[in-house]
Amino acid sequence: MRKAWWKEAVVYQIYPKSFQDTNGDGIGDLQGIIRHLDYIHDLGATVIWLNPIYASPQVDNGYDISDYQSIHPAFGTLDDFRQLLDEAHRRGIRVILDMVLNHTSDEHRWFQESKKSKDNPYRDFYIWRPAKNGKEPNNWGNYFYEGRGSAWEWDETTQEYYLHNYSKKMPDLNWDCPAMRQEIYSMLRWWCDLGIDGFRLDAINRLQKPKGLPDSTRPCAPPVNPYGYIVDREMCANQPGIHDLLKELNREVFSRYDIMTVGETGNLTSVKALPYIHEDSHEINMLFHFEIAKNAHLVSVPEYKDIQKRWADVIRQGGWSTQYLTNHDSPRQISRFGNDGEFRVESGKMLAMLSHTQPGTIYVYQGEEIGMINVNFPSIEYYDERYTVGKYHSMVEQGVDPKEALEQLKMMSRDNVRTPMQWSSEQFAGFSDSKPWLSVNPTYTEINVQAAIADPASILYTYKQLIALRKEHPVMVYGDYCPVMEQYENVVAYTRAYEGEKWFMIFNFQAAPQEIEFPEELKGLTERALLMCNYPDHKARTLRPYEARIYKIS
Ligand code: NOJ
Fold first, then answer.
1. Neighbours of 83 (CB within 10 A)
2. Which ligand 1 atom lies nearest to the CA of residue 414?
3. Which domains does the chain have, with CATH numbers?
4. Rounded Cα gap, residues 345 and 25, in angstroms
5. Per-residue pLDDT tens for 174-224?
6. Which residue among 46, 75, 142, 227 is least crowded, i.e. fewest CB within 10 A of its CB?
C-alpha cells in the first residue's frame, strides 16, 4: 500500500459559525479559530477542515456561495484567512476548505447574469428548461422540502424554469458547460496557490445530471408530496459522465498540488466506490459514504461490521476510506450510536476507540472530543437549518400534528451539531459575549472543554491518546483489517497487522454486559498487552456496557 500524509491524517472539522466568536456578534469567526489552534494542536489533529467560509447570504450556512474568492464578512477577511493559514502551518496543521461545486447562491454574479436573458454569456452556467405542458420540466422534489416541493423555480424574466436540487436560493450549476468548468478550475487553483492543503468536495457525485432529466419513477418516501414532486436523491447521483468530470478536475487542479481531496458522496455504497477513489483512477483521494450514517440509529451491529468489512476490502483493492460518526449534517454520535444518559462517557470513549482503530482517515467533528450530545429544543422556533424547518412545515401542511412532527425531526436535525462549541461553563458556554445565532445546548454547564481538560478521566484524553498512538504506530493507518469473534452479535472485534506488529480490538456495542470466550490465539492475552481500555479496570471474560479494549499482541 502506498503511503500518504492524508492517509495518516486526523482531521478536525470546524463549523466556523459555531466555533468561537471573538467580535461579539454571536457568530463564530476566523479569529476564533486562530484562538484555538493550540487546543487543536494539543489534541493532536494534523488537518483542519473548515465548513464554507465564503461570501454567502447564509441560506444554508455557507453552502450557498455568492463569491468563491472572498470571505463571508461575519467570519472575517481574506487577511484573517491568510493569518489562519500561516498560524496553522506554523503548528504543523494543514487546512482544507469545503468547496461547493454542485450549486451556487442565486446571488452569485454568474446567476445574476444567467437570469438576465437567454443569450447572456452566463446563461448556460445553470440548468434552464422551458415549461412542459404548462408545468415544471419534471417531477423532481427539492431536498429541503421547500415551498410546494419542486426542484424547479419559474423565472418571469426569461419565462423558463431553473433547477435547484436544494433551495431555490441555490441553483444547480451546469457541468455540461465548458466555460463554467474553466471558471471553476481557475478559482480552485487560486485557492491552492494561496497555500491551502485540500478540499472537502460537497455533493461531488451529483455534478452530472442524468441525460434528458427524466421524471423520477421511484416511490416517494412518506409523507407523499400532495403536488406530486418526488424527493429522489438517487436521480442525480453517480450518473454516467461523473467520472470524466472528476478526472478533468483532477487533471486541471488536484494533480498539480500536494493536496488532499475528500468527496461527500450520498447514495454511494462500497460497490460503486472504487472508480472514484482507486489510486490509479486520478479522481479524488477518499469519500464520505453514508452507509453507517444514513439512518437515525445504527441499523444493527452486524450490519456495522459488514460495512466496515466491505470498506476494508475497498482499501485492499487500492482505494482509501474515511472514518467518521458525525459531522455538521448528522446527530451527535453519542446520542445516535451510544448512550447519552448513563453511559455517555463510556460510550463516547468506545466510539472514539472504534473509529480510530478502523482503516481510513479519521475525522473528528468539533465537540465530539468532549462528548457533546444532541440538543432537545422545545419548539420549532429554536431550529434554524433548512431541512428541519422545511420538512416540519411540509409535514404540518400535510396534516401531521405539529408536536408529533417536531418529535419525529428532532433526532436527525442538523442543529444538534450546530449549537455553539462548549468551551466553558460561563455564559453562552464561552462561545461568545452575546447571544449566539443558535441557542447553546443547556448541557454546557457540565460538558465543556474546561471541565474536560481538568478531568484526566474525560473523553478528551481518550482522543488525545488515540491520536498520539496513531502517530507512533503505522499499524493503525496501514494495518490489514481482519474481523474476528463474529459469533457475538453485539460485539465488534478485529485485528490489524502491519510489518510484524499486530493489534486486537474488542468492543461491546451495547448497554448490556456480555460474556465472551477468546479464541485460542488470544487466550494468553495479558495485562501487559492491553494498550487502552475505557474502564479503569476490567475482567478478562466479561465486557461491561460499551466496554472497549485495544491490545497490542505482537
Ligand atoms: C451537503 C452539506 O454537507 C450540507 O450541509 C448542505 O446543506 C448540502 N450539501 C448542500 O450543499
1. 15
2. 5
3. 5-102+178-382+416-464 (3.20.20.80), 109-163 (3.90.400.10), 479-552 (2.60.40.1180)
4. 33
5. 999 999 999 999 999 999 999 999 999 999 999 999 999 999 998 877 667
6. 227
